[in-house]
Amino acid sequence: MASTIILVSDMHLSRARPFFQFNWEIFLQAMRADPPDLVLAGGDVALNAPSHPDDLAYAREQLDRLPCPWLMVPGNHDVGNNPPPPETIDTRGEITISQALLDHYRNVMGPDFWTRDIDGWRIIGLDGLLCGSGLPAEAEQAAFLKDAMAGAGARPVSLFFHKPVFRDDIGETDIFQSVWYPRARGLIRPYLASGHVRLVLSGHTHEGRDETVGPTRHVWIPSLAFVTDMQGEWRPDLRGRRRVGWLRMRLGLGLAETIEIVRHEPDELLITDISGWMRCGGIRHYEAFTGRRRFPGMPDTEAADR
């Protein structure tokens, strides 16, 4: 019998600013009522750990309340965002990944890239925020991925990371914060082209989407915490469903149709729309609400903003 795997993402948990704790409690109740075999968390489990390190420690405490094993990949609110491509100017106002942030993540959460074999599949978790960072771990991850793919043998592979690979097309050259930068896709494009990767799982966009491109099914995990522009009045159309919730997945051997994914959006969940935060200041306004402060070993970003 296939294992039950729960996909949850973008919970944005915080001890000091528990804006989204209610939905996490509803999720925990559902997990305890019908425990899965594994929970995969798609990143941004913390509200804003690069600015407030205790958010990550609290998120770890919350994950440990689950009644089953769990694995996660880091998001930009856990370990810092990707550095922008060198030909662009970074106007995001967001802290980028550093060795200090990476070390903190690993100390609290464990490895940021890993493999798990289950039901005849190989799931490979990656730290997409490393791409373009120049940190030693970036090259280590590339070598790890090569070995993990080779070691999969005939098993179908699922790649799992925080940001989706692309917005509209894998060959797109425009730069979007919501997906992998074009140059960064070089890490995974050969494996996608090979047909060996049958499933890609990601979060980050706070939307649910499920599309198959060639031999690969790309699934966006919705946020458990909040949505942005649920009515579709101003945010670009990403072809996703803007609701809070989680996904239940079963993997079978064979063709892509043996991947069973069911969306869960219980009525008990609060649907919080942070459109106001994002329209009146974007990530900088988000930082103002989530407690920006200097991380040990990092430059004084508040002074830099001034």
Automatic annotation (TrEMBL):
Residues 4-207 form the Calcineurin-like phosphoesterase domain. SUPFAM superfamilies: Metallo-dependent phosphatases. Gene3D superfamilies: 3.60.21.10. It comes from the Bacteria. It holds the Pfam family Metallophos. Transmembrane segments: none annotated. InterPro entries: Calcineurin-like_PHP, Metallo-depent_PP-like, STPP_CPPED1. This is 3',5'-cyclic AMP phosphodiesterase CpdA. It comes from Labrys wisconsinensis. The lineage of its organism: Bacteria, Pseudomonadati, Pseudomonadota, Alphaproteobacteria, Hyphomicrobiales.
